[in-house]
Design brief:
Elements (H helix, E strand, L loop, with lengths): L1 H21 L3 H4 L6 E9 L10 E5 L7 E4 L5 E7 L2 E9 L2 E11 L4 E8 L3
Parallel strand pairs: 1-7
Antiparallel strand pairs: 1-4, 2-3, 2-5, 5-6
């Protein structure tokens, strides 16, 4: 009787451990860490005035395609929902010399702030 009870207990224990392991959804297997945010301000290097309408382009091996945004009236930009990784930011405006900032490390669930000053053409 003891042998039968032990065998039965072991079977129940295996079921209680194995079923939750195999019952995981496909979403759990494809878990992605929380995204990060790249934000900052772009200023004129001579006058220290904010540059409005400047295009900020983010590239990274972590991205399927480039992400871009435009600075607001205060020269601020924000690139949200970016996967963790190493990024390059390119700053472009017709009245200013283009500038690229490479090797920016963005960690999961983190906001990185970068202020850039550009020289007029």
């Amino acid at each position: 009787m003891l042998k039968l009870f032990t065998a039965y207990s072991v079977c129940l224990l295996v079921l209680f451990i194995a079923v939750p392991l195999f019952a995981r959804s496909k979403e759990d297997a494809e878990y992605a860490p929380p995204p990060g945010v790249l934000t900052g301000t772009v200023l004129d290097a001579q006058s220290r005035a904010p540059i409005r309408g400047l295009v900020v382009i983010a590239t990274s091996p972590s991205l399927d395609e480039t992400q871009h945004t435009t600075t607001d009236a205060s020269g601020r930009y924000r690139l949200p929902l970016l996967p963790a990784g190493t990024y390059a930011l390119r700053f472009e405006h017709p009245d200013y010399a283009s500038h690229t900032r490479a090797d920016l490390l963005l960690r999961s669930n983190q906001t990185e702030h970068l202020q850039v000053e550009l020289l007029p053409r």
